Input
Amino acid sequence: MSVLELANTSRWYGNVVAVNDVSMRIGPGVTGLLGPNGAGKTTLIAMMAGFLAPSAGSVTLDGDTVWANVSIYRSIGLVPEREASFGYLSGRQFVRANAELHKLSAPGEATERALGIVEMAEPAGRLISTYSKGMRQRIKLAAALVHDPSVLLLDEPFNGVDPRQRMHLMELLTRMGAEGRTVLFSSHILEEVEQIARHIEVVVSGRHAASGDFGAIRRLMTDRPNVYLVRSSDDRRLATVLMAADSVSGVQLEPRGGVQVQVTDFGEFAVALPRLAKDHRISLREVTPTDESLESVFAYLVSA
Amino acid sequence: MNGTVSRLALQSLFGQKRWWVLIALPLLLIGLAVLVRVLSGGETGGAFEPVLVVFGLGLVLPLVSLLVTTGVLGPEIDDGSIVYLLSKPISRYVVALSKLLVAVAVTVLLGAGSMVVAGLILEPSAPGQALAVGVGAAVAGTAYCGAFVMLSAISRHAMVVGLIYVLVFEGLLASWLAGLRYVSVSAFGRRIAGALDDALEPIAGNLPLAYAWIASLVVLVAGCYVAGRRLSHFQLRGEE
Output
């Protein structure tokens, strides 16, 4: 059980601030580091992995400073975004070299175990240069797992990986998290994070925009405008009626039927809608929130 | 020393495309020696210095060292894949030293080795002369590795800066400005070779012998330190 902790961590390059005063605690389980490209995810992971000195603040693993401390690599496994340029090695040779570099007592066994976990035992004899993107990602993961680390850091692990391999990688990460490892992966793709991360840290423009499980982040956003699609027996009349309500900021008739309603106060709207419909003898057939996806939360955070 | 780091460095050196350049340069030197011997019908007395000292020590050796030294450190740092070596509980100085040792070993074997072979082809009757040049070349080759490692820490274009040092600084300027011999690795090598065989006196120059040895050692140690320091401070940059 390991905990990575960032305390008021900042990193700047000259005048450019890549990470701005971020504090977060990453414990066991799968955590998704979510943010658009250029938000500072790679900079954050580099600092967590001891490959970048924070300009201010601290990064610690179970209380030990991470920067310039090679002993942390006994408990950290890192999967960088860059390709391993070890194309002239076979997958097995590459993983085995990593096992040897960790000075494991039985590097051969550790290599086979790691290859088994990522299901790469069969193509492990081939040169890495012949691998597909997904296979390269898996062999990198095997190399990071070879010493059985308690912390796994992955930078954009699903980039360019085909859907079937992505599913497999996701299952792997979920399993790693369930085993009690501290797994952190970065992504700019919302569905990926939504599917496997129980805990989400959102970074936007180098700032820590939100933290918590998806639901908690969602609840933080309740004061933002929500959009609902309402189908009824008389859409045009319903639109007129709703526009008069305080909790509604806009309505629009949809070409395929239904009214799109922009709501400023979710609680008030939930009470007002059935009452107004009843008063005007309109029967409601369907009420759907149209922006419950992480995408909309994200778009809201980015624009805020 | 870490055996795995050294083995990977060796594999990367010969697993990439530049390996044939590494082999081609020493072969060129040996080929030239053979050509001179065949064309001159055995009368190779005057060819020893231009072939071995000017071409071998002055060009082949530094180029081999430059290719090898930038090859074991440069590409992995540039493309970031050195993180696979550095994300391990091993001192960064050990990683640097292990890589530099491979560079030195390959330089000595290919650079100095080909010079001994070429020397024996040109002057089969005087193996001492060829060996003396070989020793001088081995010391100079080792010092070159140290020097080029330092250059690659200072500049991203280590290859270009290294070429300028070899061709312009040592090749051109040092022949006019005698004082530059104190900072010319090639001059150290000539001095050491000259001290080992009387026939090589003319190439030795008037550098103090002890200075040539100590300066070579200093360059190597400084190179190890600079490379280790560079790896200790290696920072992973994102593509963003």
About this structure: The first strand of chain A starts at residue 4 and ends at 13. Chain A touches chain B through 38 residues (CB under 8 Å). The mean pLDDT of chain A is 87.
